[in-house]
Amino acid sequence: MGKAGKALKQVLEDYSISQFALAVAMDVERNNVYRWVNEKRDPTAETVVEIVRALKTLNPEASKAFSTLYLGDEV
After folding, report:
1. Which of 17, 22, 41, 61 shows the greatest Cβ crowding within 10 Å of its Cβ?
2. What does each of the 75 residues of the chain score in pLDDT, given as a tens digit?
């Protein structure tokens, strides 16, 4: 599976953000976040944008870190 899950897992750990907190910020079920973090399912492109927005509300630095990890030098 994909790069998004690895980046998300690292950011959640590095910034001490729970999967539940992200799920609440995104208004999705926590099991969706679990699936992305554990690479059971890749988020869609639209969902990646929602993840960035939700992380920005929780911790703007975490949002930047996720974008950088996921997109690399493209941002």
Report:
1. 22
2. 579 999 999 999 999 999 999 999 999 999 999 999 999 999 999 999 999 999 999 999 999 999 999 988 666
Q: Are 41 and 47 in contact (CB under 8 A)?
A: no
Domain assignment of residue 26, given as a range = 3-74
Amino acid at 31: N
As for how many domains the chain has, the answer is 1
pTM (predicted TM-score):
0.92
Is residue 35 within 8 A of residue 41, CB to CB? The reply is yes
| Cα 64 to chain centroid, rounded | 11
Residue 9: exposed, middle, or buried by beta-carbon count in 10 A (0-12, 13-18, 19+)?
Answer: middle
